[in-house]
UniProtKB/TrEMBL annotation:
Originating organism: Mizuhopecten yessoensis
Biased composition (Basic and acidic residues): 35-45
Name this polypeptide is given: Biogenesis of lysosome-related organelles complex 1 subunit 2
Record's GO cellular component terms: BLOC-1 complex; BORC complex; gamma-tubulin complex
Family to which the UniProt record says this protein belongs: Belongs to the BLOC1S2 family.
Length: 150
């Protein structure tokens, strides 16, 4: 690199022009701009950069495809779940309807069931009476035989 011009660099421009200092206010200050060297990069760097960008693009495409597949899977799962819940809802409605029908039939049969309970109670009472009558008749028969033997 070439060494820059002599002096402190204050007040003199790099391009050889004199910059305004704080004491002279009649002109606007000149600002220096830096410029980069525009040398072309070496071909192997260009090749490596292109390859890196291609590999990164392939990686990102793969990630996006994987994410898309995940969303498709979730969408299918949601559709299946919706169908299953719809079936379950229909089944629950059918069960509810059947249960309501059974309750209505039970209410219709309730008086007959009460009559059956009443008849069962009467039969039980009659059975007890028959048992007592049987015991009494056996005692009576035993007494009659005893009297007959005398």
């Amino acid at each position: 690199m070439a060494e820059r011009g002599g002096g402190s660099g204050v007040g003199d421009g790099r391009d050889g022009r004199k910059l305004n200092d704080a004491n002279s206010s009649d002109q606007e200050p000149v600002v220096e701009t830096a410029s980069e060297a525009k040398e072309p990069p070496p071909p192997d760097v260009v090749h490596l950069c292109r390859e890196t960008f291609q590999k990164t693009a392939e990686y990102l495409r793969g990630e996006m495809e994987g994410t898309i597949e995940d969303y498709k899977l979730l969408e299918n799962m949601n559709k299946i779940t919706i169908a299953k819940y719809s079936e379950m809802k229909q089944l629950a409605q059918d069960i509810s309807t059947s249960l309501q029908d059974l309750n209505d039939k039970y209410k219709t049969l309730q008086p007959y069931l009460e009559q059956i309970d009443h008849i069962e109670e009467n039969v039980s009472n009659l059975e007890q009476a028959a048992y007592k009558l049987d015991v009494y008749s056996k005692r009576l028969e035993a007494k009659f035989r005893a009297l007959e033997k005398r």
